[in-house]
């Protein structure tokens, strides 16, 4: 499962569709981990795409009740979207989002040990990953957003089947090309949405050995910011 990815810079994000300007106080890290703030795109009240900052993981750690063992919700399995309590309400309400990326990271064991690999587009272009989002009411009464990524089985995918431990089930994020992003967000029934949960052609992707991850910092809560 992907738990870490490289997000676009502000300048790169501006090349995706209509998002040429972002609020000056928006900040996000290049490498995104659980509970970090990062940009996503979702359907706005006018029906068009809306950019916002959201925390990575459908249930932020700060919203896990005291006494409950921390759990991860950075990835949502496509096969159980309608069943898992963390994801089912957002899936049924079609709270779909698209997560912009430059590449994401997975472990590759082909050498006999885990080697961190980056996975992106063959032409180095930016892309989106299918996800779900939801809102939270913070202690001060403000609203914040969070998101998760959707994954599918990748046992037969020429590239993604090479990732993870040999005996583990192979999984892949659902890559959405920029020209399909608005169609994904516009889905009005779950069956149409499911039709997008398919593999991206391996021939249009590439992987490479990547430097080890930098030390993770304590994330700050996501601000309630959006761009229409």
Automatic annotation (TrEMBL):
Keywords: Covalent protein-DNA linkage, DNA damage, DNA-binding, Hydrolase, Lyase, Protease. It comes from the Bacteria. Its EC number is 3.4.-.-. The keyword Lyase applies. Belongs to the SOS response-associated peptidase family. This is Abasic site processing protein. It comes from Massilia agri. The lineage of its organism: Bacteria, Pseudomonadati, Pseudomonadota, Betaproteobacteria, Burkholderiales.
């Amino acid at each position: 499962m992907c738990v870490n990815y490289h997000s676009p810079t502000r300048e790169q994000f501006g090349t995706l569709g209509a998002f040429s300007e972002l609020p000056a106080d928006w900040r996000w890290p290049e490498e995104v981990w659980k509970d970090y703030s990062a940009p996503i795109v979702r359907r706005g009240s006018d029906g068009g795409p809306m950019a916002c900052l959201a925390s990575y993981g459908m249930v932020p750690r700060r919203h896990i009740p005291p006494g409950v063992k921390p759990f991860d919700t950075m990835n949502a399995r496509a096969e159980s979207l309608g069943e898992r309590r963390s994801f089912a309400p957002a899936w049924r309400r079609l709270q779909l989002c698209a997560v912009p990326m430059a590449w994401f990271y997975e472990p590759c064991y082909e050498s006999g040990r885990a080697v961190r690999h980056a996975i992106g587009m063959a032409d180095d272009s930016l892309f989106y990953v299918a996800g779900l989002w939801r809102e939270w009411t913070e202690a001060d009464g403000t609203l914040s957003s969070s998101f998760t990524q959707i994954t599918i089985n990748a046992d037969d995918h020429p590239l993604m089947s090479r990732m993870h431990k040999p005996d583990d089930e192979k999984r892949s994020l659902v890559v959405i090309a920029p020209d399909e992003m608005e169609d994904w967000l516009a889905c009005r029934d779950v069956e149409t949405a499911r039709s997008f949960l398919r593999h991206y052609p391996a021939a249009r992707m590439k992987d490479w050995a990547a430097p080890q991850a930098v030390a993770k910092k304590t994330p700050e809560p996501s601000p309630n910011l959006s761009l229409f």
